[in-house]
Amino acid sequence: MIVVATDDFELYHDVVDELRERGVAFTTREPGAELPERTRVVIRSPEDGAVAESDGPPVTDSGDGDPPGAKSVDTVVATAEEARRAVEEAVSILRGGGGRTVVGVDPGTRPGIAVLTGETVVAAFQVPLADAVETIRGEVADAPDPLVRVGDGARLQGSQLVNDLDDVTVELVDETGTTPYLGTGARGMGDVLAAVNIARLSGETTSSREIDPTPGELQRIKDRSREASSDGRTIDEGLARRVAAGELTVEEALTTHRERGDGGPEESRDR
């Protein structure tokens, strides 16, 4: 069982909301009060005192090399801003999923992102490509030695992610077969489920990935620009290459194209 034992009202409120949203059983105690017999994890703030011993029978072997009679209770210390991370850590401990934080990414225009601690999936996202790096960095910020595994499909988007994640260990993973069959009612879940499978596969460590876009890939970017434009505007090849390299989003490329006008110097050079 998870016990929330804190005098920090904001932390208490946020942690309790997270636990209820996940359907996780928990109870609350005043800091320093005796813990229920089945306590496995305590969540508290840095200002709260150390937890009391459980009022149940002693655990003869905690499984961590503790001497007989030791109480097998883990403590997660967090501030209110870290409430979700604290709940993820507590749930992982509760389920025996302690281990390294690994983020799996199924790249694309809206990448699927799955965060695993050990074998436990603690968070999942599907966000626009422009928000993916910030999302990943937020998930690994407090993790010791995190690992990001990026699928090798969607070459252009995947290379943008690899190149932008220059402050974390990244592995490029063969994503063949990672997208599962989706039954009735599961539409839209494929990228996230693929990200979970990617997180569980070993890959090749990489720090950068340079991709020269093919004519077909450039044409698809140009087609996307026409679809996104309110006036049927299509960006030229030069801007499409900058989009492919991650220098511009399609929206930014359209703005540049519009501001310089048809026949602008950059467009003339690219024709």
Please explain how this structure is put together.
The chain has about 270 residues and is an alpha/beta fold. It has 3 domains: about 90 residues, Rossmann fold (3-Layer(aba) Sandwich); about 110 residues, Nucleotidyltransferase, domain 5 (2-Layer Sandwich), CATH 3.30.420; about 55 residues, no CATH class. It has a 6-stranded mixed beta sheet. It has a 4-stranded parallel beta sheet with strand order 2-1-3-4, with helices on one face. β6 and β7 form a beta hairpin. The C terminus is likely disordered.
Provide the descriptors you would attach to this structure in a database record.
single chain, 271 residues, alpha/beta, Rossmann fold, Nucleotidyltransferase, domain 5, 3 domains, six-stranded mixed sheet, 9 helices, elongated, disordered C terminus
Mean pLDDT over the residues: 84
The helicity comes to 25-40%
The total of helices stands at 9
What is the CA–CA distance across the termini? 66 Å
**Total number of beta strands:** 10
* Content of β-strand: 15-25%
